[in-house]
Design a protein that fits this description.
- 34% of the residues lie in helices and 20% in strands.
- The chain is α/β, with parallel strands linked by helices and 291 residues long.
- The strands form 5 sheets. Strands 4-3-1-7-12 form a 5-stranded mixed beta sheet. The chain has a 3-stranded mixed beta sheet with strand order 8-15-14.
């Protein structure tokens, strides 16, 4: 127990302007329910920094992606979306969208902070129950979320592609078997930095260029395969239960459907996630949560 108490944990959220109010609700529920962390880092594009500063506090910092990512990867207004969205361009990567760069930020933060565990929460997550981040530790091992054998059957074609591409940048020949994608998950900071060095050794390129030379990637798949197949699980223990109940796809929920969704949370789930692209009004979510 004393070893767990000494370990520093950080919450990490990658966000962007359209998710500001969702991120605000996340921060409010973190402050209300979450303990056992030393700091909360919110990672945003440079043009969103000033907007997100209003969420900062004694234990919360907004981090500019320019302080995380190499200077040769730059964002520009995207003419294909009438300049309302942005595209990230370089001579070393494929053209990248915001969701690609959010993943790169989540990896890059490991090189800039000192906490031993990085706990990732998407900005459309809201905590509804008390949660102690120290529960991610079992002695010196950190909880690694894994759906055992999920890629061995049919379906999940996107996940299988992301996992296969993770194997390429990590130098792994075995076909992927497990799925590691979820929110409210934890990575070891030291394992994340050595993962980047591994990618550079295998690809002969900066780790950002190695990953982003292909647009079909998942940071969760890369870390999961690295932890399991390169580190052979060292420093980790596995868990398959999801701490956050997520509504991934479908129509916006009515008030009654939202209440039913929350009521169906399992006893060990502490948060919900409502994907922002579904269109559920954040004001209504806030009202229903507070009620």
């Amino acid at each position: 127990m004393h070893d767990v108490l000494r370990r520093a944990n950080a919450l990490v959220t990658a966000s962007y302007k359209p998710d500001l109010e969702r991120c605000r609700l996340l921060c409010e529920t973190v402050d209300r329910y979450v303990t056992g962390h030393s700091h909360h880092y919110i990672l945003v594009a440079s043009e969103d920094v000033a907007l997100f500063r209003q969420l900062e506090g004694p234990k919360r910092t907004v981090v500019d992606e320019r302080d995380l990512l190499p200077s040769w990867l730059r964002s520009f207004p995207d003419p294909f979306f009438r300049f309302r969205k942005r595209v990230w361009l370089s001579l070393r990567t494929m053209p990248l969208r915001g969701w690609h760069v959010q993943q790169l930020r989540r990896i890059a933060i490991a090189h800039h902070v000192g906490e031993e565990a990085l706990i990732y929460c998407d900005s459309d997550v809201a905590f509804l129950r008390p949660f102690d981040c120290r529960s991610f530790w079992n002695g010196g091992d950190l909880r690694l979320f894994r759906r055992e054998g999920a890629l061995a059957g049919d379906g999940l074609d996107d996940q299988r592609l992301w996992a296969s591409n993770a194997g390429k940048v990590l130098g792994l020949s075995a076909p992927p078997r497990n799925d590691y994608i979820a929110t409210v998950i934890a990575w070891r900071r030291d394992a994340t930095t050595t993962m980047c060095r591994r990618i550079e050794e295998i690809t002969g390129r900066h780790w950002v260029a190695g990953i982003a030379s292909n647009r079909h990637f998942s940071e969760c798949m890369i870390y999961g395969r690295y932890a399991d197949e390169v580190l052979e699980g060292q420093g980790h223990f596995h868990a398959s239960n999801e701490l956050c109940r997520v509504y991934w796809t479908g129509p916006a929920l009515s008030d009654d459907e939202f209440r039913e969704f929350v009521a169906a949370m399992s006893p060990d789930q502490v948060a919900i996630g409502m994907q922002s692209f579904i269109g559920t009004d954040i004001g209504r979510i806030r009202r229903l949560i507070e009620a």
